[in-house]
Amino acid sequence: MILYALTLAVFLIVDVVWLKLVVLDVFEARIGGMMRDQPLLGVAAAFYAAYVAGIVYLVSGPAMAADVSMGSVALQAAIIGLLAYGTYEFTNMSVMKGWDWTMVSMDTAWGGVLTAGSAVAGLALTRLLVN
């Protein structure tokens, strides 16, 4: 539970900063007419809770139990992030007007970086607290 909570905290804090400072302007310029004035926080919370649970279940939890290296954790989590965010971005690009390669490349890369960084940070913090 500590691993999950710390990973979720890192993921949320870093992603909110990224969304507000970098991505919002890019997406508003391209698809602003489709965006809500305020996000649906319950929907966002459900995504964050489930996604981080997946990271912990598939990568961080097993790494904690087997004392896997941080490099391996980062690689595995990055692959999950690239696949998850890439699925969203490439699907949107294929069916929605206004979606472009800037959005696809930025967000897909961000998925890999955010997922890897959160998994590593959550695991490192948990190892410090538990060991």
UniProtKB/TrEMBL annotation:
InterPro entries recorded for this chain? DUF2177_membr (IPR018687)
Q: Which domain of life is it from?
A: Bacteria
Record keyword Cell membrane present? no
Q: Keyword Amino-acid biosynthesis, does the record have it? A: no
Source organism of this protein record: Pontivivens ytuae
Full protein name: DUF2177 family protein
Q: What Pfam families is this protein classified in?
A: DUF2177 (PF09945)
Q: Which residues cross the membrane?
A: 6-27, 39-59, 71-88, 109-130
Key words of the record: Membrane, Transmembrane, Transmembrane helix
